[in-house]
Amino acid sequence: MQQDIRKNWTIEEIYEIYNMPLLELVVRAANMHKKYNDTAEVQVCTLLSIKTGGCTEDCAYCPQAARYHTGVDVHALMKKDEVLSYAAKAKEAGSTRFCMGAAWREVRDNRDFDRVVEMVKGVNEMGMEVCCTLGMLSETQAKKLADAGLYAYNHNLDTSAEYYEHIITTRTYNDRLETLDNVRKAGVSVCCGGIIGLGEKHEDRIKMLHTLSTLPEHPESVPINALVPIAGTPLEHNQKVDVWDMIRMIATARILMPKAMVRLSAGRTNMNLSEQALCFLAGANSIFAGDKLLTTPNPSFEEDDAMFQLLGLKPRVSFKEEKKIGEATLV
Ligand code: SAM
Ligand code: DTB
Ligand code: SF4
Q1: How far apart are CA 222 and CA 180, in angstroms?
Q2: Ligand 2 site: residues with CB under 6 angstroms?
Q3: Residue 267 in contact with residue 241, Cβ under 8 Å?
Q4: In the beta sheet, which residues pair with residue 292?
Q5: What average pLDDT does the structure give for the chain?
Q6: What is the arithmetic mean of pLDDT over 156-169?
Q7: Which residue from 275, 282, 260, 270 is spatially nearest to 307, judged by alpha carbons?
Q8: Integer CA distances (angstroms), 243 to 71, 83, 262, 299, 314, in order
Q9: pLDDT digits over 290-311, tens only?
Q10: What pLDDT does 330 receive?
Q11: Distances (CA, A) of 94 to 281, 283, 290, 317
Q12: 327 pLDDT band (50/70/90 cuts)?
């Protein structure tokens, strides 16, 4: 039903949804999920940090910001062949999306960028959806990546516009929105979400969900991260994220953006199977797989495989393969 897909949500409406009695919220989100998506399907994405640490920015949560002395091993941009062999392993393990992350403030037009463009070409030719998260991006750079076969670009809002300045001062909320706009204009799928547990209020989460769900187009994927507290960062002593808050965020995102892939992102190592199952029930339909996110631990492929078996979930095939199956059926 078209009236479910709305871009004119008000803060008040979102407040009402977010604050519903928890199980009622989960049931409503589950129904919306069932209506628009195959609820047995979960997209499996693999992350690789292709350039690690030494970042100039001051994002208060980040292990890769140079100024915080977090003990992360700094690593220059990886070689293309090395990246492609990681991508091949991820594909073998069942991933259909491969996301390459770089600890950059922004993309610069230099040889490193040319190398990333080559990596994108390579992964795309392997038949996986290629995603990058490289910081701020101009429209021309987004087009260059699109021409190389980039499928999606991840750039998170992280929190509300109001709380943002408590977390990052070296670039603005508006810079972020501009990058998202450039990605859209290049015809690349948008992956945009945020983090909970930064010290924000419930209102900030509601405002962030409002910004996401009232963009000119809903992001195709919405990662919801729980803060992974990192020693050395200003947020190292933050309180652990309450799993019920994670479920509330996922369920609200599912209701506001029924067709988006809602990704249960950072924080899964702190969640048991029942807690993750509730997230899937509440509408999460994507995860990061593999024992490392960018720099922090994540459940192993084997653990996730066992979880999929137990819950009766199946990895979602990549868009391209889905098309191929369709074409084959037509012949
Ligand atoms: N440097 C690029 C940027 O900032 O856009 C790309 C990489 S950056 C690490 C990607 C996202 O990872 C951040 O926007 C943030 O949402 C998430 N992230 C980073 N550190 C995190 C942490 N400790 N806990 C949860 N999420 C985190
Ligand atoms: C997203 O929303 N979460 C991922 C991905 N996009 C790039 C990153 C999570 C990073 C967690 C901290 C780390 O491993 O360094
Ligand atoms: Fe740098 Fe991205 Fe980390 Fe911010 S989130 S410090 S921009 S790597």
Answers
A1: 13
A2: 47, 63, 101, 133, 154, 156, 193, 223, 225, 228, 265-266, 293-296
A3: yes
A4: 297
A5: 94
A6: 98
A7: 275
A8: 28, 34, 16, 17, 24
A9: 999 999 999 999 999 999 999 9
A10: 34
A11: 22, 21, 10, 9
A12: very low
Three-state DSSP at 262 gives strand
Segment 201-222 shows an average pLDDT of: 98
Interval between CA 312 and ligand 1 midpoint (Å): 30
Say what the pLDDT of residue 1 is: 52
Catalytic residues: 55, 59, 62, 99, 131, 191, 263
Q: Say which CATH architecture domain 2-322 belongs to.
A: Alpha-Beta Barrel (3.20)
Indicate whether residue 282 lines ligand 1 (CB < 6 A). Answer: no
Residue with tokens 């897909």: 5
Q: Which pLDDT does position 224 carry in this prediction?
A: 98
Question: How far, in Å, CA of 198 to CA of 206, rounded?
Answer: 14
Contact by Cβ (8 Å): 304, 277? no
Q: Return the best residue to mutate from 45, 183, 225, 287 for the ligand 2 pocket (most ligand atoms within 8 A of CB).
A: 225
Q: Please provide the size of the chain in residues.
A: 331
| 198: amino acid identity, one letter | L
199: left (phi over 0), alpha (psi -120 to 50) or beta: left
Residues 266-277: what's their mean pLDDT?
97
